[in-house]
Amino acid sequence: MKKTIISMALFLSVGSIMGQVDKAALKQAQKEAKAQMLEAQKINTDITAKINEKAATEEEITSECKKGQELIRKAIQSGLIAENKLGEAYKTYVELTFQPHNLMLFHATNKEPFDTAFFYSNLKSMTNALQGEIKYTKIIKGEGGNETHIKNRINNLAYCGDYFIYSAQFNKDIKQYDKSLEAYDIAMNYTQKFPEVANLVKLRVPNEQIAYYAFLTAYEGKLYDQMDAFYDKAIQFQEGAVGVKQRKAVSYLERRDTTSWANFVREMTVKEPQSNDDFISMLVGYYLEKEDKEGKDADYLLPYVNDIIATDPNNLVANYGRAYKFFKQEKYDEAFDAYLKCTDIKSDYFDAWFQCGLCKYRKALTLNATVSSIKNQVEAKKTKENAKSLFGEAIPYFEKARECAPDEPTKWAILLRDCYDVTDQKDKAQEMDKLL
Fold first, then answer.
1. Range 332-351 average pLDDT
2. Structural fold of domain 331-436
3. 142-170 pLDDT tens trace
4. What string of DSSP letters covers 309-336?
């Protein structure tokens, strides 16, 4: 029992000592915060006087303001400045950011070099300081009051949204992509971050255009996750929407994610086929290659091009892809109709005219190959005549192809010669030989 009493006494004694130590430490910290605030205010007063006397160099202004900012920031962040003094502290903080900001803004306006990284860090300090001064300053109305001063501070804070856009561009120029995107994000969400000025903010560009700039910045910096985050807003900027979609599609290839690329391109092109012929062509090629790898049962191309055609019946790329798929499947009648549709869309389309002829030609070859296996002579002769007729049907389409490329006989003369030869038009067959 005696030992217990002694232990409790010792515990109470230690607790009392600790309390004294804590109070002493707190008092010292408060003293230090006050000293930091006073020193910052002195720096501000001294540099302002020199500026008014035009006796301060730019280097001195920047150096002294940085020093003062660091001191006042520490004092505020300590949490030991009395609440009724916080407005005064933030006022000093604002003034220490205004001076270098104005200097750098002058250089930016005149397209002169300046420290863009400091411009951004100083801007963040300035807006936080303005917000703090507005929040913690008690409004005093009437003559000699501060009402007009605080209104000016509110206007200052409202206008700073544009500076974040400038800063984002500055940071992008020096490839500080993370900081650039952070600045764009602050600009886009400025009224949420600074609700005190929500009804006054009028940024020089709309949010969707800011998102467009941010998207391009993220793409340039290969920051794909952030690029994706800005995408939905960026495509609302109509002037850049096509480029945004194209870059997003390309980004999937850069990420080596062909599945996501194909899914994105499919959705984009089916929705808006008219402005995406290049991507339709790429996806047609992708699906054909995928089908070759997976075998004859794979069917990606036809469902895709059919969806395109349902939206845009005269899309040349999709119709040609559909025709090519039928031709590859040796469905020559379907292929012929699809190729013929292509010639309706583009009357001087060499490949479509040539393929129309080739459909007839291939069908004739296939039919002719069966003649030798037909035992009934009458039937065999009839089949041979049908094949001959198909060779004849091919001629007008090969001739249309010839009209589209008259100076390139190697593209059409061989098959035309064969068709003329089979259909007993020997003179024209010899003419093709001469061209070859």
1. 98
2. 1.25.40
3. 888 999 999 999 999 999 999 999 999 99
4. HHH-TT-HHHHHHHHHHHHHTT-HHHHH
Would you kindly state where each structural domain of the chain is located, as residue ranges? 25-204, 205-256, 274-329, 331-436
CA distance 382 to 379: 5
User: Measured between alpha carbons, how far is residue 129 from residues 5, 77, 154, 288 in Å?
Assistant: 55, 12, 11, 61
407 has pLDDT over 80: yes
Q: Which residues of 37-74 are buried (b: 16+ CB within 10 A; e: fewer)?
A: beebbebbeebbeebeeeebeeeebbebbbebbebbbe
Q: How many Cβ atoms sit within 10 Å of the Cβ of residue 347?
A: 12
pLDDT band at 7 (very low <50, low <70, confident <90, very high): low
Model pLDDT, residue 18: 53
Dist CA 397 CA 399 (whole Å): 5
Q: Global pTM?
A: 0.79
What single-letter amino acid sits at 368? N
- Side chain identity at 300, as an amino acid letter? Y
Largest CA distance in the chain: 134
Per-state percent for the chain, helix, strand, coil, to nearest 5: 80, 0, 20
Report the C-alpha gap between 210 and 165 in whole angstroms.
Answer: 8
Confidence of residue 21 (pLDDT cuts 50, 70, 90): low
Q: Measured between alpha carbons, how far is 184 from 198 in angstroms, rounded to an integer?
A: 17
- Size of the chain in residues: 436
**Cα-Cα end-to-end distance for the chain:** 122
